Amino acid sequence: MKIVIERFDRKKHYKQDYDIKKEDIINKTLLYALLFIKQTKDATLNFTASCRSAICGACAVRVNGHAVLACDTKNERSTWNV
């Protein structure tokens, strides 16, 4: 599974690709996948999340052009563009 994340630093915007084995995140949420990337692949990845119950909206992101909550979005695609 591929996750493409739009990132930026003080100088530029760029996209970064992460390849994850589907079995590592099967039946999990996008928030879980982001946490997995942060813990195992890239500690510099930062994002917000709070309740993990689809109530607060802190984990709102755009996925493939649609606004979603990362804690409430399951891995139904082979690629996520975040």
From TrEMBL:
<dbReference type="GO" id="GO:0022904">
    <property type="term" value="P:respiratory electron transport chain"/>
</dbReference>
<dbReference type="GO" id="GO:0009055">
    <property type="term" value="F:electron transfer activity"/>
</dbReference>
<dbReference type="GO" id="GO:0009060">
    <property type="term" value="P:aerobic respiration"/>
</dbReference>
<dbReference type="Pfam" id="PF13085">
    <property type="entry name" value="Fer2_3"/>
</dbReference>
<dbReference type="InterPro" id="IPR006058">
    <property type="entry name" value="2Fe2S_fd_BS"/>
</dbReference>
<dbReference type="InterPro" id="IPR012675">
    <property type="entry name" value="Beta-grasp_dom_sf"/>
</dbReference>
<dbReference type="InterPro" id="IPR036010">
    <property type="entry name" value="2Fe-2S_ferredoxin-like_sf"/>
</dbReference>
<dbReference type="InterPro" id="IPR025192">
    <property type="entry name" value="Succ_DH/fum_Rdtase_N"/>
</dbReference>
<comment type="similarity">
    <text>Belongs to the succinate dehydrogenase/fumarate reductase iron-sulfur protein family.</text>
</comment>
<comment type="pathway">
    <text>Carbohydrate metabolism; tricarboxylic acid cycle; fumarate from succinate (bacterial route): step 1/1.</text>
</comment>
<dbReference type="InterPro" id="IPR001041">
    <property type="entry name" value="2Fe-2S_ferredoxin-type"/>
</dbReference>
<dbReference type="InterPro" id="IPR050573">
    <property type="entry name" value="SDH/FRD_Iron-Sulfur"/>
</dbReference>
<protein>
    <submittedName>
        <fullName>Succinate dehydrogenase iron-sulfur protein</fullName>
    </submittedName>
</protein>
<dbReference type="GO" id="GO:0051537">
    <property type="term" value="F:2 iron, 2 sulfur cluster binding"/>
</dbReference>
<feature type="domain" description="2Fe-2S ferredoxin-type">
    <location>
        <begin position="1"/>
        <end position="82"/>
    </location>
</feature>
